[in-house]
Amino acid sequence: MSHIPVLLNEAMEILKPRKGEFFIDATFGRGGHSEKILEAIGKTGALLAIDWDEKAKERNSKLLENKNVIFVNSNYAKVKDILKEKNLPKADGLLLDLGFSSDQLEESGKGFSFKKDEPLIMSYGEDGLTAGEVINSYPQEKLEEIIRNLGEERFAGRIARNIVESRNAIPIETSFQLAEIIRKAVPGGYERGRIDPATRTFQALRIYVNGELENLKTVLGDLGVILKSGGRAAIISFHSLEDRIVKNYFRDLKKSDKAELLNKKIITASREEATANPRSRSAKLRGIILK
Ligand SMILES: C[S@@+](CC[C@H](N)C(=O)[O-])C[C@H]1O[C@@H](n2cnc3c(N)ncnc32)[C@H](O)[C@@H]1O
C-alpha cells in the first residue's frame, strides 16, 4: 500500500500556508503533505522538497513537474546549506514528517522491515554505513548500547549477546536472519504478543545508521536561519526519543523569547485516522512560530 500522509489537516492547521509563500517540505516521501502545501501557496508560491532517498523523486514525479517546485536529494540536516547554494530566501514554513515511509518499508529492498527477507542496509541515502556493517562488526557492548538507547529495548543485553554468538558462526546478512536471532534472544511471551520482538532493535539500527537524532538536532538548531520572522515549523515524530528532542528545542526557543508554541497540547491522530491508518497511531505533532 502506498504511503498515506499522517496528521495532514492538523499539520496544515499549524503551518497555515498562504498564497505566494515559500515552504520547505524536508521529508518529501510521496509528497502527500507537499500536495496540500502547494495547493495553498498556489502558483505564486514556491516549494523546496527534500528527501534523502533518491527514489522519492519518482514517487510523485507529477508534483515535481510544477515550475515552482524544486526537489533536492539530500539530508535535511543540510537545509541551511541548500538554501544558500540555491540562493533561496528564509522560508515561511518548514515541515518535517520524520522516519521512513510505507513505500520504503514495502519496496526499498533495504531491510527496513523484518517481514521481508532483504539485505541489511537501512540507510535512506545510497552511501554510508549499513545496518549489516553495524551488526557484523561492532563490539557487543556497543551493540547493546545502540539497541538499549535507540530502541528503548529492555532485553538489549541478551539480544546483543545472541547477535555476537550467531555472527561468530555465520555472518548475519538478511532481515529474516536478524529477526530470528532477536526473537530467540528474548523471553517467550515478550510484549504479550503486542509487537514483534524485533521491532525495537530494527528501529534502533535504522536510527543509528542514519544518524536520525543528530539530523533532527541539527535542523532544529538551524531554525532561526531557515525560517523568517513569522515562519512556522511543524514536526511529526513517531517515537518518544524524537518527540523529546523537539519538545526541548521548542521549549528553549520559547524561553529565550524567540518563538511561540502553536500547540500547548501535543496533537495526535483522531480515532478515525488511527483506525484507517495504523501508522498514525504513534504520530505526535508539534508546531512553533518564530518571532
Ligand atoms: C514519513 S516519510 C514522509 C512522507 C511524506 N510526508 C508524505 O506524505 O508522503 C519520511 C521521509 O523522510 C525521508 N528522510 C528521512 N530522514 C531524512 C533526512 N535526514 N533527510 C531527508 N529526508 C529524510 C525518508 O526518506 C522518507 O521518504
Explain what you see.
By secondary structure, the protein is α/β, with parallel strands linked by helices. The protein has 15 helices and 7 strands. Strands 3-2-1-4-5-7-6 form a 7-stranded mixed sheet, with helices on both faces. Helix 2 links the parallel strand 1 (22-25) and strand 2 (46-50). Helix 12 packs parallel to helix 14 (240-255). The relative contact order is 0.14. S-adenosylmethionine (SAM) binds next to helix 2.
Task: Put the structure in a nutshell.
The chain is an alpha/beta fold and 291 residues long. It has two domains: 8-103 and 213-290, Rossmann fold; 107-211, DNA polymerase, domain 1 (Orthogonal Bundle), CATH 1.10.150. It has 15 helices and seven strands.
* CATH topology group of the largest domain: Rossmann fold
Total DSSP helices = 15
Strand content: 5-15%
Summing up helix and strand content along with how strands pair, one would put the structural category as alpha/beta
**In CATH, what is the homologous superfamily of the largest domain?**
Vaccinia Virus protein VP39
Write the layout of secondary structure elements.
Blueprint: H1 8-15, E1 22-25, H2 32-41, E2 46-50, H3 56-59, H4 61-64, E3 69-72, H5 79-85, E4 91-97, H6 102-107, H7 131-137, H8 140-151, H9 156-169, H10 175-185, H11 199-210, H12 212-221, H13 223-226, E5 227-237, H14 240-255, E6 259-261, H15 271-276, E7 284-290
Parallel strand pairs: 1-2, 1-4, 2-3, 4-5
Antiparallel strand pairs: 5-7, 6-7
Helix pairs in contact: 8-9, 8-11, 9-10, 12-14
Residues 3, 5, 27, 29-33, 50-53, 56, 75-77, 97, 99-101, 124, 215 line the site of S-adenosylmethionine.
